[in-house]
Amino acid sequence: MIAPATSLACAAQALATAEPRAKAAAALDAAVRLQAAPALDPARLAGLADRPARPARPILAPPGKVPRRRLGSPRGRIALLHALAHIEFNAIDLAFDMAARFACDIAEAGLDARAFVADWAQVGADEARHFLMLADRLEALGAAYGDLPAHDRLWEAALATRDDALARLAVAPMALEARGLDVTPGLIARLEAAGDARSAALLRVIYEDEIGHVAAGVRWFRRLCARRGLRPAAAFRKLIAERLAGGLKPPFNTEGRSAADLTADFYAETGRIMA
Ligand SMILES: [Fe+2]
Ligand SMILES: [Fe+2]
Fold first, then answer.
1. How confident is the model at residue 5 (pLDDT cuts 50, 70, 90)?
2. Separation of 230 CA from ligand 1 center, angstroms?
3. Which pTM value belongs to this model?
4. What is the whole-number distance in angstroms between the Cα of residue 204 and the centre of ligand 2?
5. Which residues surround ligand 1, an ion (CB under 5 A)?
6. Mean pLDDT, all residues of the chain
């Protein structure tokens, strides 16, 4: 039997673990503990680091220096799967950082911090499973996570939103993870066209889970907006303009976004802000 956690220390433990498979294991363990926890003690996390622990590899490079992904060749598919594994690895940390960093703010806003932490612990467990699936697939193709350079854009986005739960919700789940919903169906089709049905099947699993992650972001964003007296779509557009370099990138997968309750008023015609 797993002892119930009385604080968010196990989320911090996942963040502080560097080795990739060990981080994924710590994330899965933390998710079970947090969902069984009768109470939270967020105050113990005053020392939460701005950057989680990371392995020596992959080395981080500017986005233009990361290998291109022509999917007709095994090397191209490895480059794509490596880039996706890196996204999932970052996503583990993003989920537990969300839980640990903002649980106090959620409680102070009069919302259910226990439910907030449980939601992001579930997301973190999904991301750990996604990472492990992709790492295993890379190994089946004769490669490994860490073999190629990777970019740091996801954690740069985390740093740009470390001061405000609403900004983090807007940028991480509602912009970056929603972008995953936009591009994944096309990647699945390209992998199938290249004859890699196994990788395509993994991306189908990930796509379905990611709808739930975007939905969690939208749910907490709407709740926090209600507490702050803000109109959600207008608040989202303002935060994206202020906090996300480059803004939102169409084309949008309206079907996938709608399944996550991310309605078109949040992102349509982003060039014209009607707040
Ligand atoms: Fe994921
Ligand atoms: Fe996700």
1. very low
2. 29
3. 0.94
4. 13
5. 88, 91, 127, 130
6. 92
How far does the centroid of ligand 1 lie from the alpha carbon of residue 127, in Å? 4
Long-range pairs for 230-238: beta carbons < 8 A, 24 or more residues apart: 230/166, 231/275, 232/266, 233/263, 233/265, 233/266, 234/274, 234/275, 235/166, 235/170, 236/170, 236/174, 236/266, 236/267, 237/266, 237/270, 237/273, 237/275, 238/273, 238/275
User: From CA 110, how far away is CA 221, in angstroms rounded?
Assistant: 14
Quote the ligand 2 centre to 123 CA distance (angstroms): 6
CA of 81 to the centre of ligand 1 (A): 13
Six-digit token string for 231: 């109109």
**Which ligand is located closest to the Cα atom of residue 213?**
2
Taken in order of first residue, the domains within the chain and their CATH numbers are: 9-42+65-266 (1.20.1260.10)
pLDDT on residue 273: 40
